Amino acid sequence: MHILEKKSPALTIRVGRDARQLILNEGLQAHHVDIIPGAAGGPKGIGIHGLDQAIFGHFLPQAKQRRTLIGSSIGSWRFASIAAHGAEKGTHLLADLYTHLEFHKKMKRNEVGEVCRAMLHELIQNKEQQIIEHPDYHLAVLAVKSEHIFNSDHTLPLLASVLGIVTSNAISRSKMKLFMQRVIAQSEAEQPFQISDDGFKTHYCALNPNNLEDWLMASASIPVAVPAVRNIADAPKDAYRDGGLIDYHIDLPFQSQGLVLYPHFTDSITPGWFDKMFKSRKSNPENQARTVLISPSEAYLKTLPLGRLPDRKDFTLKGLDQQKRIQLWKQSIQESQRLGDEFLELVEKQNFADVMLDL
Predict the structure, then answer these.
(1) Which residue, among 295, 296, 293, 312, has the nearest Cα to 244 in the 3D structure?
(2) 9, 145, 221, 226: which one has the fewest Cβ atoms less than 10 Å from its Cβ?
(3) Is there a domain that residue 207 lies in?
(4) How far is the C-alpha of 141 from the C-alpha of 74, rounded, in Å?
């Protein structure tokens, strides 16, 4: 007699205090969801391709309503592509374009920037107006405004700035404000997404068809790797960089009236990119009280070809050529359909009580 082995879950579900209570009382319902964050993290974002398809293509359409999508770096690109092309085509296009990028170690900063800009242009396909005026989604793009010597793209002041940021952050996260300030770029046509004071000066800038591509590019412009984006239309003439520097996994006071549904590539929230080296830098429980964090499980990750999601280091990883990397990434993207299938099954059965963990 064969005993069937219980299949390991592909997803980890972590919830905040208020989210747990609401789900226990009413289940996870599409009409509860009013905010969706998208973290920075490079190609890890396409590693949850199937989860995005399930959420945006099947779950959210169960209750058509206006929702805020707030993205940093690849998170903002994911949301812009979905708004431009729909859930299925948008996720496929982003995954395909990103997978077929080619970088090498000797590329100069400007060359890397040109490759990324070309991909972004092909991703948007002149659908700026459609993204800005989307009937279901209000897109908010996170970036940072560089301060003082962090304005420069020359190597010495740039490296000195990064050293200063690391040192400042080691003292206190808020000390990084000496080098950068948060920017939230969004349409002015409706009630904007706003946050309460969290120690960083926050600038609210207009997002429109004339500057959407620039803001998306700025949101993903990693210092040292890619030049800052300058001369953005309808914005102060400053240097703008990767939103993940301050808001890596987006630990913000969301002020949700329902639930913050967060498809993520890891089961924890690290506030800023430079906080990765400090295990004590966790998300604020009050910020995440209404959050439902959905991420690949450790068991799922172990089944992937690389034992993890696609990563930026794969472009230059020793022993991994371009053809092999593309093959492995495509396998990971295809496998991510399991994430979406499991999420939709949980929604159908409403057995979240059996799997929810504390965030």
Answers:
(1) 312
(2) 9
(3) yes
(4) 10
- CA R_g for the chain: 20
Q: Report yes or no on 156 lying in a domain.
A: yes
| Token code pair at residue 121 | 């242009």
How far is the C-alpha of 301 from the C-alpha of 324, rounded, in Å?
19
Would you give the DSSP letter of residue 198? -
* Burial grade of 255 (CB within 10 A; 0-12, 13-18, 19 or more): middle
- DSSP one-letter string for 12-32: EEEE-HHHHHHHHHH---GGG
User: The domain containing residue 223 runs over which residues?
Assistant: 28-252+305-345
Q: Which amino acid is at 349?
A: K
The amino acid occupying position 223 is P
Closest CA to 271 of 88, 104, 72: 72
Is the pLDDT at 5 greater than 60? The verdict is no
Spatial distance between the Cα atoms of 202 and 221, rounded to a whole number of angstroms: 18
Count the Cβ atoms, other than its own, within 10 Å of residue 307: 8
CA–CA dist 256, 265 (Å, integer): 22
Total domain count, the chain: 1
Residue 9 has, within 13 A of its CA and on its CB side, a CA count of 16
Q: What are the backbone dihedrals phi and psi of residue 37, each rounded to the nearest 5 degrees, phi first?
A: -85, 155
Q: At a CB cut-off of 8 Å and minimum separation 6, what does 267 contact?
A: 12, 14, 293, 295, 297, 357
Evaluate whether residue 299 is within a structural domain.
no
Full-model pTM: 0.95
Write the pLDDT tens digit of every residue in 213-254.
Answer: 999 999 999 999 999 999 999 999 999 999 999 999 999 999
Nearest alpha-carbon partner for 292 in 59, 16, 27, 62: 16
Bridge partner residues of 68 (DSSP)? 35, 138
Give the span between the Cα atoms of 331 and 305, in whole angstroms: 7
Domain membership of residue 356 (yes or no) is: no
